[in-house]
Design goal:
The complex is a heterotrimer. Chain B is about 55% helix and about 0% strand. By secondary structure, chain B is an all-alpha fold. Chain B has one domain: Ammonium transporter fold (Orthogonal Bundle), CATH 1.10.3430. The radius of gyration of chain B is 21 Å and the shape is globular. The longest helix of chain C has about 45 residues. Chain C is globular and about 80 Å long. Classes of the chains: A mainly alpha, B mainly alpha, C alpha+beta. Chains in contact: A-B, A-C, B-C. Chains B and C meet through loops of B and loops of C.
Chain lengths: ~220, ~350, ~220
């Protein structure tokens, strides 16, 4: 295959969103839902999945229409497409569970302005074919969901002593109320960023050491 | 002092100093706090002693660990962390579980001080950062108060004090009591001013005795180690505002002496708002800063959901302190002043 | 890129935007139509669940609209305030579920409470909407001690039927001594008081009115 000559393969496009270019931990995009709705694991997961669905579908449609949309009106077109999918997803969530809809509140509508989605449309789907755009959308969406879940899980365990509504800590545990308040979102995100930066720094140092050894 | 080294020293100005150094000032702040702390122990008994020691120990430990991890020279010896630990302990309710006290101590020093670069770089008073996080994390623990001068306070401690780490404390209602501010807000009981001056009321370990706090403040002010304009500006603002409100509607608003003497206003105004790093530097700036704290305190206490607001008032004023300084910066003679 | 060159014509821009707009509009309308019955069924089920929760003996419910001279079975879209009648299996009136709202610690709290004609008391309360502090104020919805207040909260009317004899009032935790008092939650005094205040206000307005027009609920619309 000539894939190696053409650059990243479809699989690469999928994988990169999970870790190397994770929308939350590396690109630090889409902070509004990341901080606002991650007060429990289920909310975080639902928000992540809703965003992923919109991301995959908008990426697909924009990739298909990329030759048809004139450059001057591309942002307007992208917003139109994204907003339609978000509205559709909102109705579906309401049909699936009213409680979930209530918990996520206005943040479902705000997926429209989540910069992860517009960012992928502009930076990727408008320049790549359908299959790659689908892979990119799915990868980024999963990476976003994964990040939100990490935040939501930590906040729910510390803030309510439970995970997915099931108590995981002994009943005598004193919940840290601050973790389910907005400020807890900032603390948790900061701690995760610290952790991931530490990991990537250590990896870079090891890689540098390895090349130095090879060179010598 | 050791005799001056005879070798030639090359260094930048200042060459003549007043002799006041960080550790000297901080040591005097600790001395000024000692009477307040001792009174806290006398009023609340063993539990206050445990809380203060735990607060102090956790702050010292956090400072030592963080200096070690960040490969910085240890700043334990400059006494600043002792001030943070002592102040933090004095703002806690006696009977708070030791594990919460220690967790908050780590947060105070880690989040309030070292995250911003250590001593001299903290935009907020570290002790109050620790307390604010504790207040948000454990609202019940931080607002369960033990009555002062209980019998047997020197022979026993509340069961909540030694709660197993990370477990919820259990309180016996018989021992708890409402602070003067909460009693006023929720039950409209006004505590006597004389009790508030002397400290015969319920509250945080070190906030009850107005007279001892003022004594400590006066000592520091006399030694020029504290900017007395800050507490003065706070007191005047609170007094004038409350006096006017009380005059307008005596039923709805408490008296000025009550507002001045209750809660953490004294402790906060004298020892926390005056944090040298987090308060403005210009004289006019300091007055505005104090007035802002006063207005915010009165606003939160009277119209907010919580009975006490000094802590948030000081933290908010800390946040705008640099901007106040910019606002009142003297213009250079000969320039228009519009664009420096 | 040739896409750039092609995009210069205004016609193409209009074509693209209008085309996308039409397709997106179609998508939204079809999803809306498809999910509408499910969403409405969900909402009705949620409301009915709340009604049955505050009126434990009820097995079916009917919606009434308040008018100037009593209550009418609701037909069509809602106008004005609503109350919900709860009925037992055999169609006999169990009580009413009445919505109330008021300012809490964080935002408006909306609740639904059940009123029993027989007991002259509030027999249940659910929180429909609240943004109270998690772990503290939001306990008004879950705290068993607080919920126990609503097993029989006395709101019986004075002799002339103009208002409840005793206004509902919140008292400090553990000091409830009368059936019209609400035992507050420790650490959530403000939320507890907010619930008491909205109940006080709502019962003063509604209980005299529903007692006066009790017959309106007995045989609504001539149904069984």
């Amino acid at each position: 295959m000539s894939a190696t000559l053409e650059g990243p393969t479809t699989t690469d496009e999928f994988i990169k969103g999970l870790w190397k270019e994770n929308p939350v931990f590396v690109q630090v995009l889409g902070m509004c839902p990341t901080l606002a709705v991650t007060n429990s694991a289920i909310n975080a997961l639902a928000m992540g999945l809703a965003t992923m669905v919109v991301l995959v579908m908008s990426n697909a449609v924009i990739s298909l229409l990329r030759k048809f949309i004139p450059k001057q009106v591309r942002i307007a077109s992208y917003i139109l497409i994204i907003a339609s999918f978000v509205t559709a997803v909102e109705y579906v969530i309401q049909a699936v569970s009213l409680d979930l809809h209530k918990a996520l509140g206005a943040f479902i509508s705000l997926i429209v302005v989540n910069c992860v989605i517009l960012g992928r449309a502009e930076a990727f789907a408008s320049k790549n074919d359908l299959v790659k755009s689908l892979a990119d959308g799915a990868g980024m969406g999963l990476g976003f969901t994964f990040a939100l879940f990490l935040l939501g899980a930590v906040r729910e365990v510390l803030g309510s002593g439970s995970l997915f509504g099931v108590a995981v800590l002994p009943a005598s545990f004193q919940p840290w109320v601050i973790m389910i308040l907005p400020s807890g979102g900032f603390f948790t995100l900061g701690s995760w960023l610290l952790f991931f930066n530490y990991l990537s720094k250590r990896k870079a140092r090891k890689a540098a050491l390895a090349t130095a050894e090879v060179a010598s | 002092m050791v005799s001056v080294a005879k070798t030639l020293q090359l260094r930048t100005s200042p060459h003549v100093t007043s002799g006041a150094s960080v550790d000297l000032i901080m040591r005097h702040v600790v001395w000024a706090l000692v009477p307040t702390a001792l009174f806290g122990v006398y009023a609340f008994g063993l539990t206050a002693a445990v809380t203060l020691s735990a607060a102090l120990a956790s702050c010292l430990l956090a400072e030592w660990l963080l200096c070690k991890w960040s490969e910085q020279p240890s700043t334990l010896s400059d006494w600043s962390v002792a001030v943070t630990g002592l102040l933090y302990g004095l703002t806690l309710p006696p009977g708070l579980p030791v594990w919460m006290t220690m967790l908050g101590g780590f947060i105070a020093v880690g989040l309030g001080k070292h995250l911003f670069g250590g001593l001299g770089y903290n935009p907020f008073n570290p002790a109050l950062v620790g307390r604010a996080v504790m207040q948000a994390a454990f609202p019940v623990g931080m607002t369960t108060w033990h009555a002062a001068f209980g019998s047997g306070r020197f022979s026993s401690v509340p069961s909540s004090l030694f709660t197993f780490p990370f477990a919820a404390p259990e309180y016996t209602d018989a021992l708890t009591s409402a602070t003067p501010l909460a009693a006023w807000k929720f039950e409209h009981n006004l505590a006597a001013a004389s009790d508030l001056v002397m400290g015969f009321t319920t509250g945080s370990t070190g906030e009850t005795s107005a007279v001892l706090i003022l004594l400590g403040g006066a000592y520091l002010a006399a030694r020029k180690m504290m900017n007395w304009r800050i507490p003065l500006s706070i007191f005047v603002t609170v007094a004038v505002l409350t006096f006017a409100l009380h005059l307008a509607s005596p039923e709805a608003y408490p008296t000025a002496p009550f507002m001045l003497l209750s809660g953490g206003l004294m402790l906060g105004a004298v020892f926390m708002a005056t944090d040298m790093v987090a308060s403005p530097m210009t004289t006019l700036g300091v007055v505005i800063y104090g007035a802002l704290i006063g207005v915010l305190t009165v606003t939160i206490r009277l119209w907010g959901g919580m009975p006490e607001g000094v802590m948030y008032a000081i933290l908010l004023a800390n946040a705008v302190a640099p901007h106040i300084d910019r606002l009142v910066r003297p213009t250079v003679y000969g320039t228009s002043g519009r664009k420096a | 890129m040739d896409a750039v060159a092609k995009g210069d014509s205004p016609l193409e821009m209009y074509r693209a935007l209008v085309g996308i707009g039409v397709v997106c509009g179609l998508l939204i309308v079809s999803v809306f139509q498809g999910t509408k019955p499910i969403i409405e069924a969900n909402k009705a089920a949620a409301l009915e669940r709340a009604i049955f929760q505050v009126l434990p003996a009820a097995k079916q419910s009917k919606t009434f609209a308040a008018t100037d001279d009593g209550f009418k079975l609701l037909e069509g879209p809602a106008t004005g305030p609503l109350v919900f009648g709860g009925y037992a299996e055999d169609g006999s009136l169990v009580g009413l579920a009445i919505p109330a709202a008021g300012m809490g610690y964080a935002d408006t709290i909306r609740i639904l409470y059940g009123y029993s004609f027989e007991a002259h008391a509030i027999v249940g309360m659910v929180v429909l909407e609240s943004k109270e502090t998690p772990g503290l104020g939001d306990k008004i919805a879950s705290d068993p001690g607080f919920q126990a207040n609503f097993e029989a909260l006395d709101v019986s009317l004075s002799a002339d039927g103009s208002a409840p004899v005793h206004a509902v009032a919140a008292v400090k935790h553990g000091t409830k001594s009368n059936p019209w008092q609400l035992d507050s939650i420790t650490g959530a005094t403000i939320s507890s008081k907010a619930v008491a205040a909205m109940l006080r206000e709502s019962t003063t307005t509604w209980i005299p009115k529903v007692e006066k027009h009790k017959a309106d609920f007995m045989n609504p619309g001539g149904a069984k």
